[in-house]
Amino acid sequence: MNTEEIRFALAQIDTCVGDLDGNARKVLEYARRAAHDNADVVVFPEMTLTGYPIEDLAFRATFRRAAWNTADRLAADLAEEGLGDLYVVVGTVGTERDSSLPQNRLVALHEGVVWAGYDKHFLPNYGVFDEFRIFSPGSHSMVLEVNGRRIGVAICEDIWQDGGPVSELAGRDIDVLLTINGSPYEEGKGDTRVDLGARRAAEVNAPLIYLNQVGGQDDLVFDGGSFVIAPDGTLLERSPRFMEDLSYWTLGARGQAPKASTLAAELDPDEEVYTACVLGLKDYMAKNGFTGVVLGLSGGIDSALVAAMAADACGGERVWGVSMPSMYSSDGSKDDAADLARNLGAHYDIQPIEPLFNAYQSQLELDGVAAENLQARIRGVIVMAYSNSKGLLALATGNKSELACGYSTIYGDAVGGYAPIKDLLKTRVWQLARWRNEAAKRGTGIGGLAVVGNESGSHGVPCEEIIPVNSIVKPPSAELRPGQKDSDSLPEYDLLDKVLAAYIEHAHGRADLLADGFDEQTVDTVMRLVDRAEWKRRQYPLGPKVTSLAFGRDRRLPITSRFRE
Amino acid sequence: MNTEEIRFALAQIDTCVGDLDGNARKVLEYARRAAHDNADVVVFPEMTLTGYPIEDLAFRATFRRAAWNTADRLAADLAEEGLGDLYVVVGTVGTERDSSLPQNRLVALHEGVVWAGYDKHFLPNYGVFDEFRIFSPGSHSMVLEVNGRRIGVAICEDIWQDGGPVSELAGRDIDVLLTINGSPYEEGKGDTRVDLGARRAAEVNAPLIYLNQVGGQDDLVFDGGSFVIAPDGTLLERSPRFMEDLSYWTLGARGQAPKASTLAAELDPDEEVYTACVLGLKDYMAKNGFTGVVLGLSGGIDSALVAAMAADACGGERVWGVSMPSMYSSDGSKDDAADLARNLGAHYDIQPIEPLFNAYQSQLELDGVAAENLQARIRGVIVMAYSNSKGLLALATGNKSELACGYSTIYGDAVGGYAPIKDLLKTRVWQLARWRNEAAKRGTGIGGLAVVGNESGSHGVPCEEIIPVNSIVKPPSAELRPGQKDSDSLPEYDLLDKVLAAYIEHAHGRADLLADGFDEQTVDTVMRLVDRAEWKRRQYPLGPKVTSLAFGRDRRLPITSRFRE
C-alpha cells in the first residue's frame, strides 16, 4: 500500500435527533465495515452523534454532557475493537464551557480519543435554518494530518459562503477538502451542490468530498447524494440519493491525477420529488413510533396520491382509507376511492357523514361557508377518532395550491399530524400521480425504496394503474355543495400555479407579477387569497396565540427526538 | 426659556405592524400635542413607523420602500404644519442598499428632512426575538446635538448587552442617553428594566430616557411603563403601564441636578397580569378586525376567567358564551355558566352535545380516551360554527398547567384563534378570578381599561361577584366521564404548578428537580406528561409537518399587519 494514498469511506447515514446511543451504534457498525474494506478515514454527516437539527436541545446541559460522553465512549469502543487506527470523522455538539452557546463541531476519533475539533464558522439563519440562535461560531480553519497528507475540513454552510475557513484553507496547501453536511432536500439542489463543490475545489486547488446525511427529520428531508469532485469539475464519486450508503474514494499519491470511483445513477425529476415525499413520511413514522396511517379518501387526486405515498412508505396493509361521503358526493368519487384502496391493498371503511351533518344542523341551522366547513370538520373528527382508537398517524391531504389560497377548512381537511404533499402544487400532484402509475406498469422501484404494486399480483391485483385514471382526469371539486368545482373559486390550476410560484417562491410583488405578464385581475385575486389564507393559518394554529407572560416562552424542541431528560 | 434646557415629550404609543399610514398619522397627532406643550424633542418607540416586530416583512423591498417614503412624507408634513423645529425621534426600517438585510433604525425628523440615522447594534435572537435573522447590525454609536446638548441614542437590546454603543457613549460626554424600545411584557420585568436603566445611566454618567411601546401585537403584549432615571438611580419620571401616554421630562441646564417629574402609580401583581391578558386580547381583536368573541362556557374556572377578560376587552354584549353540556355535565356546572353569562351581560346559548355524540357513536363505537376526545371535538366543531357564521373570534380557554401536561384535546378544547390564559398556571387562574371579583366589588378600574360590571347596575345586575364562587371553589373536572376529576390524572395543582415552574420556566433537569425537594414519583410523572404533550403539540400543528421541498419555506409574516403588497 502506498502510504501516501488515503482511502476514504463515505458513510451517508440516517441519524435520529437525540438518539445518542443509536447514532453511536450506527457509527460503530459503519466504521467496522469501512475498516474491513481497508479505509483509512471514514466520514459521517454533520452532527452525527446528536442528529441534526437539534434546535433547543443545544441549550440543555444534560444533553450536551450526554453527547460528550457518547463521543468519548465511542472513541474508546472503536479502539477496543481494534479500530483505533481508523480516523472516524463525526459531527457533534461542542464542549466549550466559557461560551454561553455550544458549537456545531467536527471531531476525529482516533486511537481511542476524541481528537481535533473544528467548529462551524458560518451559522445559517435563513429559511429553515436557525443555527445562529443556538450555536456560537468557530473562528479558525483546521487541517487534519493523515499519512502525511493534509485534509482541510469544513461544515456545510462554510462552503456556501465566500470567505471564512475555505478561503483560509486555500492558502494552507491542503490535499483534500472534506466537508460534512446536513443539507435538506430541495428540488434541483443536487446540481447546485455539485456546482458549488466544483467552485470550492478549484478555490483550494484540491478535490472536495461532500458528505451529506440522508433521511427524514421532523419537517425536513435530507437526500444524501454525497459526492467527490476534482478542482477541474470532474465528478469522481457520487453516492445514491434518499438511502443510506457506504461508498469509497481514494486520494491518489501526491502528483497523481485524481482517481474516479463509482457514480450512482441520477433520478428523473418526478421520481426525485416522489421519493423525497415517501422517505420523509417513512422516517417520520419510524422515528416517532407510528406503524400505520389513516386518511380520508375522497376519490380525488390529492388523497389518492397521499395514499399511494403512504402505501409506498409503510405497506398498503398499514394504511386505513376512510371514505366519508356526503349528500354531495358523486358515485364516481366513491368508486374511485374504493378502487384505489383495493389497488393499494389498504383497509377501506365507509363512514357516511349525512346523518351527522343533519344532527348538527337540527341544532345549528348553518348555511353558506359555515355549512361547508361543518362537513369538512365532521370528517376531521372521524379521522381523529380512527387515529386515537387505532394509534394511527393522521395524514392531511392538502396540496400547496389549495393551502396557499386557503381552499381548505381549518380543523377540517387540514386535520393531521403529517401532510405529505403540502409542498406540491396541484399541477405537480397530477404529474406525480401519472408518474407513479407508469412506474407501477414498468415494475421499476422508486428511488431504491420498497414499492407497493410494482409487480402485478403483489397484493393479488393486477396493477395496471395504482391511482384510478378517473381521479387524475376529472375536474377537481371539494364536493361540499351541489355541482361545486375548484374553478368556481380559484383560477385554473395551470395559471394559478405559475402565479403562486412567482408570488410565494420568488417573492415577486404586485408590480413584478404584472411585469411577469399575468393579468391584473388574476394577480389581485391570487394575492388577496394568499394573504388572507396566510393570515388565517397564522391566526389559527393548534396552540393558539398567547400573551407572552414570563411563562410564555415555548421551548423549540425537535418533534422527533429520542433524548429524554 | 433657558436654551440649554431640553423638554422631552415621551410618546408611549400603540402602533400596528405594517400600518405605515396609520402609524405616521399617530406620530403627527402626538407631535402636534408635544409642540403645543413646548417640547423640544418628542420620542416614539422602536420601529414606530413600521410597527414591531415586523418579522419577514423586513425582506420585502416593497415594504421597505413604502416605509422610507412614509418617513420622508412625515418629515415634510411636520414642516408644513410649522413643526419643523421639533425633533421627532422615531424608529423605522433601514435604507442601506448594499447590505442584504436592512437595519433596525432610529431617525430624527427635523426641518422637513429625515435626519441622523442610528442602527441597532445588538440584534436579539433568543426567546421571542428573531432579529438577527432579519436585520443587519449597526456598528457606530451616535450623538444627536440639540440646543447645544449631546443626546446619545440606543435601541432596546443595545442597553441589555454590555459593551457596544452604550460603552462607546460613556466616553463621548453625553448629557442624556435616549433609548427607544419594543420590550414585551413579562411579569416583574418593569423592575428589571428600571434596575438596568440605572446601571446604564451610571455607566454614561447621564440621565437615561427609556421609551417603550404599548399594546398587543400578535402573541406579544407591550406594557409601556416608560421612565427616566438619574445616574444615581433616582426615578425622575414614570409613565403608566398598558395604555398610551404622553408625558414630559425636562433635562435641566448644564450643571443643574436632574429634575423629577410625575410618577405613575404602580399596579399590584394580579392587576398587572390580568391587565396584560385583557390588553393583549383587546388589541388582537381591534388590529385584526374582530368585534366579538365566542367561547365554550363549561361552568369551570378557566372558561369563566376567559369570559370575564373578554367582557373587559370588548364589552359583555360582544361575548357569545355557549354551554355545551353532555350526559356527564353536572347541574351545578350548567347553573354556574348561566350565572356567569348573566353577570357579564354576555349572550348565552345552550347546545347539548349528547345527540351529536350518540350519532357519532352509532357509527364509530369508540371507548376510553377516544370517546372522551370525541366529546371535546364535537364542542370544537360547535364553537367554530359560531365563529364562522357570526364572524366571531374563537377563544381557547386552556391554562398553562393543563396544556403543559397535555390535559387537553387537540382539535377539541384547544380550538381557537386566541388563548388568553394559555400562560397562566392553574393556581394563578384561581388568584386572578378572586382578584377580579374583588375589583368588581371595590368598583375600581383595571389598569386604566374600561371594565365590565365595576359598578352595580352597569348591566342591570348587582355585581357582588362576577365569577360565580362555585366555579372558583369546586374541584376541577373535565366532565368527560362520570365522576372524573383532574386529580385522577394530574398531581394536585399546588404541587404541579411548582414542578412546572421549575421544569419549564427554569429548565431544571431531573437531578435538579430532585435537588429542589420534589419527590421522585411526582417528578417522573410531570416530566413524562410534559415531554409527551410537547411532542403531541409539535406533531399536530394546524398546518401539519411537511417535507421541505423547494416550495416548503414558510414566510414568517405577522398575523396582525396592515401591509398588503
Q: How would you describe this structure to a colleague?
A:
- Chains A, B: It comes from Bifidobacterium saimiriisciurei.
- Chains A, B: GO terms for molecular function: NAD+ synthase (glutamine-hydrolyzing) activity.
- Chains A, B: Deamido-NAD(+) binds at residues 373, 402, 536.
- Two copies of one chain form a homodimer.
- Chain A is α/β, with parallel strands linked by helices and 565 residues long.
- The first copy, chain A, has three domains: 6-254, Carbon-nitrogen hydrolase (Nitrilase/N-carbamoyl-D-aminoacid amidohydrolase, 4-Layer Sandwich); 272-490, HUPs (Rossmann fold, 3-Layer(aba) Sandwich), CATH 3.40.50.620; 492-552, Arc Repressor Mutant, subunit A (Orthogonal Bundle), CATH 1.10.10.
- In chain A, 38% of the residues lie in helices and 16% in strands.
- Chain A has 17 helices and 18 strands.
- The first copy, chain A, has helices at 20-36, 61-80, 131-134, 157-160, 164-169, 189-204, 269-288, 301-314, 331-344, 354-364, 368-390, 400-404, 426-442, 469-473, 493-505, 510-515, 520-539; strands at residues 6-12, 41-43, 87-93, 104-110, 113-119, 143-146, 149-155, 176-181, 208-212, 214-217, 220-223, 227-229, 235-238, 245-251, 293-296, 319-323, 347-350, 393-394.
- The first copy, chain A, has a six-stranded mixed β-sheet with strand order 5-4-3-2-1-14.
- In chain A, helix 7 (269-288) crosses helix 13.
- Chain A is elongated, with a radius of gyration of 26 Å.
- Residues 453-462 and 541-555 of chain A have low confidence and may be disordered.
- The interface between A and B is large, with 104 and 104 residues.
